[in-house]
Amino acid sequence: MLDEAGTRTMRLGIVWGSILPDIDLLISIIIIAAGGNMQQALAPHRTLTHSFFTMLALALIGLVLWKTAISKSVGGGLFGIAIGMFAHVLLDLPYEVGVSFLWPLTSQRFGLFWSLPGVWAYLDQTLDFLFAAIFFYALHRLAKKYQMRSRLLVPAAVASIVAFLVMVTYDLTAVSASQWLLVYAGIGLPFLLLILILPWLNRRIIYSIPIGSEQHA
């Protein structure tokens, strides 16, 4: 049976892991800002942070720390991050651009069928802000269910909706891909930080979510 210390931080790790893979967009933004083109900017995206070997390493380190009781909380968190990253990569696979799943052995990208044309590709990425709003509000609802205090979740949900509407308006202007990426990143990076910070501030809510046998306890 899984111990409480590890499973609590595993929940938080899953949330973080579902977001962390796209942190590599920071490199893409730096390349664009330095005058690089989109091909150069997207080359490092979906490599290290989307690699099976990164996820495997995190999962193994997490399990060792967790099961040897060196640090059950850190181990559970790392294992959860690996699970979240794997879920993120699975959701990226339908896109034709794919992910470098076996990096660094090969940079070949594995993808399936989804390649949206023109402005639809922008709108597809803009949905991230809507998903952020849903996440923040869902966490707030859980806080009410478990009679806990939520911290900044409602303002964050409202801000995400505003960012979504602003980006949709901008998407429809059909700007160049490099210019769009800079604007998207400028608005999106603060929300990326929010999605990492607010779960930590509201971790007691996440810790209270039952998993596995806890649901029937």
Distance between the termini: 13 Å
Q: What gyration radius follows from the Cα positions, in whole Å?
A: 19 Å
- What fraction of residues sit in β-strands? under 5%
**Average pLDDT, to the nearest integer?**
86
- Poorly predicted runs are none
How many strands in all?
A: 0
Coarse shape: globular
Report the biggest beta sheet as strand number plus sense, adding barrel if it closes. none
Proportion of residues in helical segments: 55-70%
Number of domains: 2
In DSSP terms, counting alpha (H) and pi (I) runs of 4 or more, how many helices?
9
Class from secondary-structure proportions: mainly alpha
Characterize the structure shown.
The chain is an all-alpha fold. The protein folds into two domains: 1-114, no CATH class; 116-217, no CATH class. It is 65% helix and 0% strand. Helix 6 (119-145) runs antiparallel to helix 7 and helix 7 packs antiparallel against helix 8. The chain starts with a helix and ends in a 10-residue tail after the last helix. The model has no long low-confidence stretch (mean pLDDT 86).
SSE topology:
Layout: H1 4-17, H2 25-33, H3 38-42, H4 52-67, H5 72-92, H6 119-145, H7 153-171, H8 177-201, H9 203-207
What labels describe this entry?
about 220 residues, 9 helices, mainly alpha
Brief digest:
It contains 9 helices and no strands. It has 217 residues and is mainly α.
